[in-house]
Hints:
This protein has 339 residues and is an alpha+beta fold. Helices cover 22% and strands 29% of the residues. It is built from 6 helices and 18 strands. The model has no long low-confidence stretch (mean pLDDT 97). Pyridoxal-5'-phosphate is lined by residues 58, 219, 222-224, 242, 244-247, 281-282.
Amino acid sequence: MEDLNWAQLPFGYYKTSYNIRCYYRRGKWGELEVSSSEYISLHMAATCLHYGQEAFEGLKAYRGKDGHVRLFRWKENAARLQSSARGIRMAEVPEELFHAAIKKAVQLNIDYVPPYGTGATLYIRPLLIGTGAEVGVKPADEYLFLVFVTPVGPYFKGGFKPVDVMICRDYDRAAPLGTGNIKVGGNYAASLRSLQQAQEAGYSTALYLDAKEKKYIDECGPANFFAIRNNTYITPDSRSILPSITNKSLKELATHLGLKVECRPVPLEELPTFEEAGECGTAAVITPIDKIFDPKTGTIYSFCKNGQPGPVSTMLYRKLTGIQFGEEPDPFGWMEIID
Ligand code: PLP
Ligand code: COI
């Protein structure tokens, strides 16, 4: 991997040496298994293929300034995977099993954790799927929990560089009482049409409104939405968005830094009043939003002066990534050294 150009890595799949697997059979989880194969052998009637019994997570390992490798708030990902599992009636992965599997996956691929200073990280993708064969619609009785890792660069080209997004008016990503608040594959399948529509119109991603009334901002395709106004961090409260761990952390950081935090329904009409806007997530980190285009009215809302990220987004980005890369103290106890 010496020939890997770490600083230019896209957010994509790159083969690493090992992945970790664990099977749930006869009502219990087995031992962790190490595999060097990129493939899985699956029954053709597995419920993940037919009835969408699939959930995943996304977190990162960071090579710090001191050379150590750190995980960020993995317990939150473990809890969210359990919530996703309950949401589509899959076997839950115990927290200790989740921790052991992600730690092992990183440790066995430690040479793929990108060097400090390149901006790249090792993305960890835990996956839980129904593997038991069923034809009637019901939960499987067998599951596979798998963890692979892959070195990645920024999700949006350029990293901490403003992007333009398009409000999605033609499709919904999640129903009001549906599965938008858990991380299941079906939500992402439902987002592909709007993503393509936004990209064909020249935008980086879609911004979803609440599915019921189309009055409130929900979230972006792969990340939560936030805005800044009057020293206040404002982010939507909605039953149909994914509870982002990055957003949760930014709310805590914002409070710590003396900002006010408002988590509430955010009406579309408030857009012109915001001083800054952004997306946040594991993959997106903080991605400032320059323009938001509403195809219904033709309105373009702008948030960046001379294409530059705003001061509060910049401060939050520096603080968050400073903690993640071990450049700053970690007053919240978010990081765990694992090498
Ligand atoms: N919203 C959606 C739809 C996502 O896919 C993600 C990514 O995981 C997020 C928000 C951000 O969540 P997190 O900060 O936990 O990565
Ligand atoms: C993440 O931020 O980890 C995500 O899962 C977003 C996207 C790649 C689906």
